[in-house]
Each structure stands twice: as C-alpha cells, then as structure tokens.
Amino acid sequence: MPLIELKDVCKIYNRNLPNEVVALRHINLEIAAGAMVCLQGASGSGKSTLLSIIGCIFPPSSGRAAIAGRPLSRLPDRFMTIHRRRNIGFIFQQFNILPDLTVLENVGLPLMPLGVPPAERQARAMSLLKMLEMEHRADFPARQISGGQLQRVAIARALINDPPIILADEPTAHLDRELSLGFMKIMDDLRRAGKTIILASHDHLITEHPAVERIIGIEDGRIHAA
Ligand SMILES: Nc1ncnc2c1ncn2[C@@H]1O[C@H](COP(=O)(O)OP(=O)(O)OP(=O)(O)O)[C@@H](O)[C@H]1O
Ligand SMILES: [Mg+2]
C-alpha cells in the first residue's frame, strides 16, 4: 500500500465566484513510504496546493486523499489538525514564522499542543538550530533575522516533532549553495532514517540531487510525468 495516495483529486479555489481558480485537475498520485520525490512545475502550476492537500492544510474539493490507507478527505477538521501535528513537518514557501516570538520559541511551537514540557521543547529546538547553524540567533525576535535565516528557522520548526512525512515548499529559495547542500544532506539523512520526503522546487541542486528518486512534473494543475 502506498503511504500517500491521491485519487482523482481536484482543488478549486473560490468555487462559483468570479475569481474561481481550478488549481488541481484530476490528480492521481502514489508515493511510497521512505521515498524522496520532487514536484517540479512552473509558477502557478499547483505545487503548493498539492503539498497543502497532502499536508492536511485543507481538503481536496473533490476526489480522495489518503495517508497510510486513512482517507483524509473525510476526516473532520479537528482530526485533520491532530493528524497534521503528529505526522507532518511542513516547510512553508512563505515560512509562516511568527515575527514577535524569538527564533527558539518559533522552532519549539509545534511541540506545545503535543504537551512536551518547556525544558525539553527548548533543548530540542536548540539542537535543531545548531544543526542549521542558527544557534547564534536563538534569542532574536524572528522579525530581526534575514530571509535565509528565516528559511532555516522554518526548516527547524518543521523537523521538531520528528514527523514521518516532511513536505518542503521551495526550501532552498533563500539559501546559498553551501546552505542548500547542507539542507539536502539533512533531507538525505532523514530519508535514510526512513522518513518520506516531498519537495517542491526548481532548484537544480534539489532536482538533480542523487537522493531524489523521482521528479513529478506538474503543469496547469495536471501531473504530466510520473
Ligand atoms: N488561496 C488561493 N485563492 C485563490 N487562488 C489561489 C490560492 N492559492 C493559489 N491560488 C491559485 O492557484 C494556482 C496554483 O497555485 P499554487 O500556489 O499551488 O502554485 P505553485 O505551483 O506553488 O506556484 P509557485 O511556484 O509560484 O509557488 C495559481 O493560479 C494561484 O493563483
Ligand atoms: Mg508555490
């Protein structure tokens, strides 16, 4: 059984309004547990929308999405949230970092609803910040750090709940070559540890990386190459 299975998934934003957008059209996709794959397609082709459905941010407008045989599309909202907190690490394209919290607080945030005590939250957040060479900014409010630093905070925050599924939307867009290679090394190590990783990127460093076993081409909401 594939870990992630989408059947005839469509996503329509603003349905029946003048600004209606059909963002995904009849997507059929299976991703095996332990795979590392990359979505590739032009701006506006539907990459972030597809990641958001797999990441339980919102359900498809029609069709079925299942993770480990469990149909997400039929889960009530609060179960979607619980599922997301436990199973998904999402590196958002726009980071979604809270500007008034410190870097350390931002990274530890996903552990709060899981009931992890503060000392452990801090320790785990700090060790991830060290791994991403960001510990020197741990106590800075997030609004005072650079774009590439924010991206690394978003990466650390996505990994803190040790999720089995990691979704990364343009994760190297603001990183230089060295940091991008460092990011891919982290992803490769996580893949070896059994995680399932789905990236969306145009960056050749990612699309041509030896650990990426499959490129999923997406064009105008349709998958065109498996
Ligand atoms: N919240 C929204 N409301 C309405 N339309 C949206 C919304 N989010 C995305 N869209 C539209 O859906 C289409 C797919 O958007 P999506 O963000 O998935 O593309 P993308 O492939 O991630 O693009 P990029 O490479 O620029 O990040 C685009 O035409 C976009 O304008
Ligand atoms: Mg996008």
Could you describe the 3D structure shown?
There is one protein chain. The chain is α/β, with parallel strands linked by helices and 226 residues long. It has a single domain (34-61, 75-225), classed as 3-Layer(aba) Sandwich (Rossmann fold), CATH 3.40.50. The protein is 32% helix and 26% strand. The strands form 2 sheets. Strands 6-7-8-3-9-10 form a 6-stranded mixed beta sheet, with helices on both faces. Strands 2-1-4-5 form a 4-stranded antiparallel beta sheet, with helices on one face. It is globular, with a radius of gyration of 17 Å. Bound molecules: adenosine-5'-triphosphate and magnesium ion. Magnesium ion is lined by residues 47-48, 93, 169.
Topology record:
Layout: E1 4-13, E2 21-31, E3 36-40, H1 47-54, E4 62-67, E5 70-71, H2 77-87, E6 88-91, H3 103-108, H4 118-131, H5 147-159, E7 165-169, H6 177-192, E8 196-200, H7 204-207, E9 214-219, E10 222-225
The protein binds adenosine-5'-triphosphate (ATP) and magnesium ion.
Adenosine-5'-triphosphate is lined by residues 13-14, 21, 23, 41, 43-49, 93.
